[in-house]
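quick one, two chains, predict together pls
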Amino acid sequence: MITVENLTKKFGDITAVENIFFDINESEIFGFLGPNGAGKTTTIRMLSTLISPTSGKITIDNRDTHSNSEYIRSITGLLTESPGMYEKISAYDNLEYYSSFYNIPGTRRKNNIEKYLKMFDLWDRKEDLAGTYSKGMKQKLALSRALIHEPKILLLDEPTAGLDPESAHMVRTFIDSLKKEKTTVFLCTHNLEEASNLSDRVCIIKGKIIRIATLSELQNDDKNKRTEIIFADDAERYVKLMEEIGQIKNIHTEKNRATVVIEKPETSNPLIIKKLIYSGAEILYFNEIKATLEEIYLDLIKDEKIK
Amino acid sequence: MKKAGIIFKKEIKEVIRNKNIWLPILIVTAIFSIAMPLILILGSSSILKDEDTINFINKMFGQVGDPLKVLIGFALKQLLIFLLILPAMVPSLIAPSSVIMEKENNTLEPLLATPIKTSELLLGKSLTALVPALVISTINFIILTIVVDIAAFIKLGYAPLPTAEWVIVAFLLSPILSFILTMASIIVSSRSTDIRSAQGIGAVIIFPIYLIIGLQLAGFFLLNVTYLLIACLLLLLVCPLVLRLAVKIFNRENILTRWKMKA
């Protein structure tokens, strides 16, 4: 559905993104992650044809975005990072106004406005000025605006920012449900748990692509495998002992719990257990655990900084 | 062009509701279209009692049969230049804020993400400034003509307006000027990084109009049909240039990335 090839965007001397590339399949949720200034907003703006690439190519729905920008905008919905609404007109009129730029028949437009305002619990306040809405309500209204023309592709920049936990959960459930409707979702978020739960694949970027993979692919990387050990006493006592094994990359302790990042855990873990038991350690729990996306992300960004 | 109409329809409602736009327009109309002509015409008899004024008229126009009529004719030529204030002022009040407010309220990016063409957006925004400028200028011209004619009829027994010069100013020079200032304001607001700088530059744009007013009042020239037609011709040549520049500058990337987004 979306193909990005060697995409570079420069603003004067500053390179926002350099030679990035990815493919996104139809009805896939593609998490796009990176620190502030990594080029996420620039990429989303290029995908929505708001700005042009300095070099490289974007193909959406088999069409080049450069020469088909109007078509691309008609099939994409954009939720910007700071979504503004016309504060002096009603929520309903805001949606009516934006939807009138799409080629949708009047009745369907009205039905869609009603559908999304009801879905996001805004219907009862549809006649209120958008300026009187809370931040969370404005975010839901902005999401309704992005969806109003039933786009094939949804470009979301921090969709749950500013939402209370209940509303955020509702939005996440909704995003997940879009798969059934074959909507492709490009999801920029700093909420790594959200990305982890929703995304089919994640892309970690910092000006350049650091990694594109599914969560399980990332977790199965050797460097992301972790072993959790719970001792009967303070875990700090056994750190030096475990380090003697030599294949340990990192040990993090908290009270009687130690989280060990180790190369080739399938061969190293039996050695650790043996060494700990011989030294008289009382082990209450020993298990290989999967790294969270947050841990993987932080490691990748840290590695990138060192480079 | 339907989409330009959608923008115009929404924005014109906001312009009508905006007191900050209407208040200066009403003040300018009250001063230059009602108060000033009334004072000039109704107070002209007392001015003629002053010997220096009589000497001035004799020096300027030679020996004249009816100095009052000559004086009012001269005053009307001076007033003519004030007809240019509103067509210049209205676009500079509306156009800069119409783009910059969108940027400030973060509504521009979602709008640009719709399938609207940049030319349609530019047209919609331009019409929002241009149409009120033309309507207000025409209404102002009608008010001024009625006020002058009634006052002159009471005082002199005849209605001096409209003259050829007034018609040229009202229906040729004013629309051209409004168009140029609308485009200039759009350019300013597309290039500005914040609302204050846009308003500042917007205020400077209409400075040449004040300069022309000042120069005529200082006696450097007196507008006549020839001067006015030359001015129209010169400004007509400027029109395609500002339009071209506005179209070039008013592109999605420019107006989006040259703005410091609010957090």
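The two ends of chain A are 33 Å apart (CA to CA).
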